[in-house]
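Purpose: get a first structural picture of the assembly so the mutagenesis plan has something to point at.
Setup: four entries, given in the order below. No constraints added.
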Amino acid sequence: MTEALAAPLSAEDQTVQSMPDVSPTKWHRAHTTWFFETFLLGPAGHPGFHPAYGYLFNSYYEAVGPRHPRPDRGLLSRPGIEEIAAYRRHVDGLMSGLLSGPIDQATAGLIELGLHHEQQHQELLLMDIKHVLYVNPLLPAYLPLAFPNPGSPAALGWLYHDGGVVEQGFEGATFAFDNERPRHETLLHPFALADRSVSNGEWLEFIEDGGYERPELWLSDGWYAVNNNEWRAPQYWHSNEDGYWQFTLGGPRPVDPAEPACHVSYYEADAFARWAGARLPTEAEWEVFAIATPLDDRRSLDLDRLSPRPPEAPGRFFGDVWEWTSSAYQPYPGFQPEAGAVGEYNGKFMVNQQVLRGGCCVTPPGHLRPTYRNFFPPAARWAFSGLRLARDG
Amino acid sequence: MTEALAAPLSAEDQTVQSMPDVSPTKWHRAHTTWFFETFLLGPAGHPGFHPAYGYLFNSYYEAVGPRHPRPDRGLLSRPGIEEIAAYRRHVDGLMSGLLSGPIDQATAGLIELGLHHEQQHQELLLMDIKHVLYVNPLLPAYLPLAFPNPGSPAALGWLYHDGGVVEQGFEGATFAFDNERPRHETLLHPFALADRSVSNGEWLEFIEDGGYERPELWLSDGWYAVNNNEWRAPQYWHSNEDGYWQFTLGGPRPVDPAEPACHVSYYEADAFARWAGARLPTEAEWEVFAIATPLDDRRSLDLDRLSPRPPEAPGRFFGDVWEWTSSAYQPYPGFQPEAGAVGEYNGKFMVNQQVLRGGCCVTPPGHLRPTYRNFFPPAARWAFSGLRLARDG
Amino acid sequence: MTEALAAPLSAEDQTVQSMPDVSPTKWHRAHTTWFFETFLLGPAGHPGFHPAYGYLFNSYYEAVGPRHPRPDRGLLSRPGIEEIAAYRRHVDGLMSGLLSGPIDQATAGLIELGLHHEQQHQELLLMDIKHVLYVNPLLPAYLPLAFPNPGSPAALGWLYHDGGVVEQGFEGATFAFDNERPRHETLLHPFALADRSVSNGEWLEFIEDGGYERPELWLSDGWYAVNNNEWRAPQYWHSNEDGYWQFTLGGPRPVDPAEPACHVSYYEADAFARWAGARLPTEAEWEVFAIATPLDDRRSLDLDRLSPRPPEAPGRFFGDVWEWTSSAYQPYPGFQPEAGAVGEYNGKFMVNQQVLRGGCCVTPPGHLRPTYRNFFPPAARWAFSGLRLARDG
Amino acid sequence: MTEALAAPLSAEDQTVQSMPDVSPTKWHRAHTTWFFETFLLGPAGHPGFHPAYGYLFNSYYEAVGPRHPRPDRGLLSRPGIEEIAAYRRHVDGLMSGLLSGPIDQATAGLIELGLHHEQQHQELLLMDIKHVLYVNPLLPAYLPLAFPNPGSPAALGWLYHDGGVVEQGFEGATFAFDNERPRHETLLHPFALADRSVSNGEWLEFIEDGGYERPELWLSDGWYAVNNNEWRAPQYWHSNEDGYWQFTLGGPRPVDPAEPACHVSYYEADAFARWAGARLPTEAEWEVFAIATPLDDRRSLDLDRLSPRPPEAPGRFFGDVWEWTSSAYQPYPGFQPEAGAVGEYNGKFMVNQQVLRGGCCVTPPGHLRPTYRNFFPPAARWAFSGLRLARDG
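Result (C-alpha cells, whole complex):
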C-alpha cells in the first residue's frame, strides 16, 4: 500500500518538504522500513542495509541513537527513490524470512506495531503530499479525481446521554496502541452529541457572520494564531468572484456545502462551537456513542475520492474527518508505555496536544477503532481535521 | 499592599521588563488601578484620568479596545512612578466615593473581583521583579532578608485515597473565580498523594543522577526545552565550587536541601516524578485532600521571608510553592465565563496550560483556596512553582 | 555637557532601551566615564570604582575583556542614575588630579580622545533619547522647544569642480580620528555638487511622485527594506488629514518644507537622488568643497532648537544634517589604526557601512571637521541623516 | 553546456535547495531559458511556453512582474526535470529560428547578454550543487574525480607598482557587463601584489596560530560571524585525527597545502591578510597587473578537476579561485546601467557587497576578463573564493 500511494508521484514530488511538519514521500517510505529493520531485523542479528540509514531515517527515538534533524528532511536528495525502493525490497525480503520461521509473542507484537505504524504513515504521506502540491503555484493534482456536484448540508440531529459512570479505553486481544489503555471508568455528565460533523455550508455561515473577526469567539492563543497567520477560512480554502474553492488531492474544486468541514485547527473548531452556542465533546463523550456504533471502513482511504464525503446517514462516527475533542492529550489513569524504545511511540507526546477521534478519508481501512486517540497541536491544520458539536444535556 | 510592595524599588527598577512574560512594576501598579477605572468608574460616569491610559494599561481585554503590545511594556518611560502614584490616588479617591454610596450586587461583585485581581498582581509583581533583579549581573536584593542555616529534607509520607465519585470545584457565597465553578462530581481512581512537596535535597539527587541528561525521563517537548534552553537545574540555581546557590529576593544564597524545590517548569516536574517512580497528581486528586485540610495563610506572603520554607508538619497544602498538577487547564463541566468583558479573565486561556494548586510564599494572605486554579504554560519557570508526587493506589 | 543633556530626563527615561541600536541615557553617562577610568586611570594605578563596571560599561573593546551584551543594556535597573552620578564625580575627581600633574604626550592624546569620544556620545544620547521618547504613545518632548512657522525650500544651486588629483584626509597637529588619516592624493572626475542639502519640501514631492512605490528607483537591498519595514516616509514622519507631521525632541510638529530632510536611510537617500536625476557625492567630492569653506559651529548642537534649520545661505557644509555619501566606509590608503585597545575605535567597523559627512544639529560645537568621517549601516535612520545631491560634471 | 552540467544529477538532486542563497539545478536550467523567452522571444511576438513560468522563473527583475520567492525555490516539485528539458528544447528551437533571420544590433546585444548570463548560471549551478551535496550526511560526489597527491605551497613573490594615474574598466567592441564600464582614470599609490593567491598550507598556519580565536585580527562584523556561525576553518573543511579534509565535487579528500585556499568569506580573507601583515588589494590594483597578463582559460571550468589547482607559474591572474578585493562594489564614475529591464542586472546590487576578481575553477572558459567584477556579500563562503595579498609599496 505504501508503495502504491507513492507510485503516482515523481522523484521530484517525493523529495520536497514543504514545511517542517511535513516529511518527503521518500522519507516516509524509508522510515517505515527502518522501523522493521531497527526493531525486528537488528535484534535478530541482521546488519543494517546502509550504515547511515539508522541516522537518516530515525524519526524521534532517542533510545536508538541520534538522528537527522526533522526540518532538514527536504535537504536530502540521496538516497533517491530507486535506492529507497531497493531498501524496501531488501527489508521486505528479510522480513519474509523472519515470518516464515517461529515467532515469539513479543516479536509478533512488534511486527503488528510496525504494520500499524506503517498505516499511520500511509495517512501522513497523503496529508503531507497534499501540502507539498498545494504550495506549488501550479496546484497539481495527486490523482485525477471525479467529484459530484455540490449539495446542501444534511439536517443536524442530536444524540442524548444521561451521564453516569462509563467505561473508556481499549481492552481485548486485538491490536491497540498503548495510549488507548487501560480500559477504565470515567464519569460523564448529561450531554448531547451531534449526529454528524459540521459541514462546509455551516462553516461558510460562520465566515459570513464574521467568525474570523470576532475575538470574543476565540481562545486567546487562537486569536493570536488567526491574526498572526491571517486565517480567514480553513486551510486550502480560497475565495474568488465565484465563491470559495479548495485545493484537494484532485486539484482545485469548489467548496461543497454538503461535505464535512475539514482542515481546521483546534482553535477554529473551538471558536466555531462557541459561535454555534455549543462546545466540543470530550473524548469520553465521543467514545461512548462511537463504541455503540457499528464500525465500518467505507469512509476511510479510497483512491477514487481522497476527500471527505457528505454524510449518508446520521449517527456515523468513522471516516471522512478526524474530529477535534476538547480533551487535552493526557495519559489514562494507570497508563503504562510499552517497554523498550517503542515506548517512545505515544507517551512522550502527552502535552500541548488535543485528541482527535474517528479517522478520516485518508486513513487506511482497518486502522479505525472507537478507542483510537489521534493527537495534534491546537494550531495544526494540515491533517484532515473537522469537528462535531456537543452541548450540556 | 501594592504600593508597599513597590516601595523598596527605585524608579529604574520599576521600569524594566526583563522578558516578554514579565511586566514592569509600575505597569502592575497602573494596570490594577485601570481595572477599577475601566470596569467600575467608567460605567459610573467618571471620565478617564488620562486619555491614553486605557490603551497603555489594558492587559488583554479585547472587549474594551486595543492595547499597547505586551512585549513593549518595558519601552515606556512615561508615565513615571510619580504620575502613576497620582493616578492611583485619583482612582482610590473616586472608588472611596463610590463605596460610600449604595452599591448593587453586580457592582459589589466587580469590586470584589478587582480586589482579587490586584492580589494576583501583587504576586506577579514579586515574581516579575525577582526576574528583573536576576538578569542584572549585580544580583541586587529586593529586600535584605535573613535566612536560617540549611537543613535536611523532611521524611516523606503518603496520603491514601480509595477513589470513587467526589465533588470538585467551588460552591458558596464567598468569592471564587469563574474557572473554579461549577462544583461538580468527578471520578477518582485509588491513589496516594505525598504529604509534602518535593524538596531541594531531592532535586539535587535528581541532578546528580543525570536527570537533565536522560531523554527517557522527559516529555518530547520537555526534552526540546532542556536542550534548547540548556536547563541543568531549576531557574535561579547556579553551581560553583561550593555547590549550588540560588538567587532569591534577598539576593544570592546557598540552596537549602530542606526547602521545597521551586522555579521548575511543568516539564521538569513531570520528569522528576517519572525519575522518582511516581507521577504528578491530577487537580482533583490534589483538591480532595486539600479541601479536607484547615486553610491557613502562614506560608503565604511574608515580607520577612519571600522564599518557600521547609515544611513544619506533613499533610500541609497551602503556601510555599505552587504545585504543578498533571491536569491541562480546561473548563469544568458546565463552566460559564462571567458576563461582560471580565469574562475574558480566565476562560480564554484554557488551552496550552497546566493547572497549579496551593499558593506560594508570595501569594497574598486571603488569596488561598483549596479550589483555586492557577495556570501557566508548561515551560514557565519564573513563578514560584514546585511539585508534589502522586502514584496509583 | 553630558550631565546637562541628561538633566531634563527622569530616572525612567534614562533606563529605557527602545531598540538594540539605542543605549539608555544612563549607560551613555557611565560608558563615557568608563573610558577615562579604563584607558587613563587604570594604567595610572587607580583601582576601579566598582568591580562590575568594567563589564557593564565596556561597549565593544575586545582587548579590555568581556562585556554585557549590547541588546540587554535596557535590562539593567542598577546602577541607578544616582550611583552613576557618583561614579562620574569619582572619576572626574581622579582625572582632575591626573591633569594637575605632568602629562606625557601619549596620555594627553588619550585624554583628548576621551573628550572627543564623550562628544560623540553626547550626540548619540540625543539621537537615542529621541527614539526612546518616540516609541512611547504619549510622544513626550525632551524639552519644550519653539519652532518658527513652516516656510518654503530655498532655491538650489550647483557648485562645479573640474576634477583632477586633489588631497583628501586630515593632516595637522590638532585632533582628528585615525580614520581621517593619512592625508593622501585622490583623483576626481569633473562633477557638480548641490549648494545645500535636500529639503523636506523636495522629499514631499518624492513621496507624492510614488518614490516609495517604484522599485526602479531603489537598490535591491533598499527595496527589500522599504517593503519589509513598510517605509513610506522618513523616520519620525506620519501623515494625517492635515498632511505630514514629525516627531522632534520638542514633541510632534508639522513637517516644515524649508528644513533639510532628515532621518532617512542611505537607501532612501540613494533612491531620492536617482529620482532627482542625480546621484550622491563621494566623500572626496564633498570634502574638496567643504575644506574650502569656513568652518562654523552655528548649526550644531543648540538646546533651543535640536532640529535641522532651513539654510541661511547657499554653499554651507556643516551642521543641520549628516549627509550620506556614496562612499563605502573603507580605510584610506596607508591607514593605520591607533596603537593599543583604542585602535578598535574605528578600523574594525570598515565594512557594511556608508560614510556621512558634515555634522548635524545635535553634534556638539567643536566636534565638526571637514575631514570627519561618520558612518552608519545603510538601513539606519535614527541618526540625523540627510543628503546633498551631486552629478557628473 | 548547461544541460551537460545537469546530466550527472538525478531528479532528486536537481530539486533540492539547501539554503536560501542556493537555487535548485532545475531552476537554473529553467531560469536561463526564461531569460531568452522573456527578453527575446516575447518581444518578438512568441507567446510563453507556460503561463506560470514567467512567475516561477523570474529571478529578480521587478520590471517584468512578480516572482516566486527565492527561498521557496526548493518547495517546487513541478515542473519536473523532463518538463524543463522540454521547455529548453522549445525555446532553443524558437531561438534557432530567430537566429536564422536578420538580427538588429540591440537584439544581438541581448542574445550575447543571455549567453553570458547562462555562463554565470553554469558556474552558480556547480557552486550550488556542491552545497546541496555537502549538506547530505552521505557526502556524495557530483562526479568521480581523481586528485594528485598533496604537495607544498609554492614560494611567494611580489609584483611592484609605482602608483600614479592608470586606467580601469572595460572599453572595446567585445562583450562586457555594464558594471565594467566606463573605462576611466584612477589614482594608485605605490603598492606590491602577491604573485599568487594564498595557499591551503598558509591557511593551515593561520588556523594553527589561532587565527579564528583572536578578535584583534577581525572586522567587528567578521568577529560576530565567526562566533555566531562557529567558523573554525574555510567552508567545506573539517578535521579529524588525520588532519583536515574538505568536501569537493569529487567527494571528501584531504586538504592539499599546495592548492589555493578556497571557500573563505571576505571577513576571513581580511583577517588572514591582517594576520599576514598585509592587506587585500583594491580592484584597481588587481586589474592593473591582470590586464598586462596574457588571458588564458586553462584554469577555468574543467570537468576532470572542478577544484582549484596548485599554481603552475607565478604572476597568473585567472582561474582557480575568485579573489576578494578590499573594494566595496560601487559604480564606476559615469556608470550607466543598461536600458530596460536588463538594467537591473548589476546596478541595483551596488551596496553591501565586495568585489572579487579573476574567475575560478568552475567559471566557463570564455567567461574570464581582466575587467570582470564579480561580487558577493562579505559573509558568503559557498562561491569558490580565495584571496591574494597586497601591501603598501
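The two ends of chain A are 43 Å apart (CA to CA).
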